């Protein structure tokens, strides 16, 4: 029996993780509609995927709207392959010098990932996002031989929390759960990836972060990493990095579900709903203006637009020169202060 390749093992892992996460949400709200599992194939090039999407259609008459815990959610998987053009290869060589480059030659690539976004209905329950991915580039094989040997590979991913109302215990729980997963594989990982997350999810034109952060990382491979020290413990081989990916991926449910359970039934006001929708407007701004994955997807020929825009909330709000959040003594203002100046939440756990 042949040993499974990393492609096969990662694909098997993310399909299992997708089912675990969807099942967790369906168990939490058994009376809500089930997630819609939408399988698809990538025509013309190659690949497949399964989009697991939750939505509750609004009533067609004057009856009350749905009372589900989630308002909109998606847990999506894509597994694609094809040819990477020279321009993209040239850009990737900045972090992966092992990739051969010829301005006229495309190379075979493989990319697999799981990406999820959950927008709860209650204003006190935070939105959450996570994704974990694997990318591989191979030599161009001789005619009739399929794909050549792998010349470069790397993992990336992360998870972040976006509340409308700030509860310190929620932020501490989320961060310490991620920190514990990271610390199994090296003490430098959490602080570096937490800082990277704060930098990445920054809305430049608003001068604020999207939420209270979490983890963000990319380009994890055997090669030298721009953000990690060479002389400290960290995952370096494909096996070690895959084990790290599984540790942080498996931490998603325990990092988020207890928070959702605490907040999903809290009483809320129309004003709190208004603030939630304003914060979701900021979420939309980041995703459409800055998010690399969204921008890359929208530029990709034959892209699956419904899956790319799955991350956007069902409803958002923009107000001209809104005064909500300007009073630093208010609950909204308290959140804004943290979005302007990120906090070391895991460090607060020990205070």
UniProtKB/TrEMBL annotation:
One of its GO terms (molecular function) is coproporphyrinogen oxidase activity. SUPFAM superfamilies: Coproporphyrinogen III oxidase. The keyword 4Fe-4S does not apply. One of its GO terms (cellular component) is cytoplasm. The keyword Oxidoreductase applies. Its EC number is 1.3.3.3. GO terms for biological process: protoporphyrinogen IX biosynthetic process. InterPro entries: Coprogen_oxidase_aer, Coprogen_oxidase_aer_sf, Coprogen_oxidase_CS. It holds the Pfam family Coprogen_oxidas. Pathway: Porphyrin-containing compound metabolism; protoporphyrin-IX biosynthesis; protoporphyrinogen-IX from coproporphyrinogen-III (O2 route): step 1/1. Homodimer. This is coproporphyrinogen oxidase. It comes from Suillus subaureus.
């Amino acid at each position: 029996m042949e040993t499974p390749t990393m492609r096969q093992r990662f694909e098997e892992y993310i399909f299992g993780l997708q089912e675990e996460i969807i099942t967790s949400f369906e168990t939490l709200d058994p009376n809500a509609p089930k997630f819609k599992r939408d399988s698809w194939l990538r025509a013309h090039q190659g690949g497949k995927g399964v989009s697991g999407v939750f939505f509750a259609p609004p009533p067609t008459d004057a009856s009350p709207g749905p009372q589900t815990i989630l308002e909109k959610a998606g847990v999506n998987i894509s597994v694609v392959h094809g040819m990477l053009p020279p321009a993209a290869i040239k850009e990737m060589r900045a972090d992966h010098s092992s990739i051969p480059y010829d301005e006229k030659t495309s190379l075979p690539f493989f990319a697999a990932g799981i990406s999820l976004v959950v927008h709860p209905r209650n204003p006190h329950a935070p939105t959450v996002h996570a994704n974990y991915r694997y990318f591989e580039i191979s030599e161009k094989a001789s005619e009739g031989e399929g794909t050549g040997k792998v010349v470069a590979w790397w993992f990336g991913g992360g998870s972040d929390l976006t509340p409308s109302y700030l509860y310190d215990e929620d932020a501490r729980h989320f961060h310490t759960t991620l920190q514990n997963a990271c610390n199994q594989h090296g003490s430098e990982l959490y602080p570096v990836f937490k800082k990277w997350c704060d930098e990445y999810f920054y809305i430049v034109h608003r001068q604020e972060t999207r939420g209270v952060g979490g983890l963000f990382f990319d380009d994890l491979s055997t090669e030298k990493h721009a953000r990690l020290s060479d002389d400290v413990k960290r995952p370096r081989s494909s096996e070690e990095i895959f084990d790290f990916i599984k540790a942080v991926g498996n931490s998603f449910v325990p990092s988020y579900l207890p928070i959702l359970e605490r907040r999903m039934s809290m009483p809320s006001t129309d004003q709190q709903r208004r603030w939630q929708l304003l914060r979701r407007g900021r979420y939309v701004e980041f995703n459409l203006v800055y998010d690399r994955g969204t921008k890359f997807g929208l530029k990709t020929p034959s892209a699956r637009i419904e899956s790319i825009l799955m991350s956007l909330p069902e409803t958002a709000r923009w107000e001209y020169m809104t005064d909500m959040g300007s009073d630093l003594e208010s609950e909204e203002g308290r959140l804004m202060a943290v979005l302007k100046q990120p906090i070391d939440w895991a460090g607060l756990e020990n205070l």
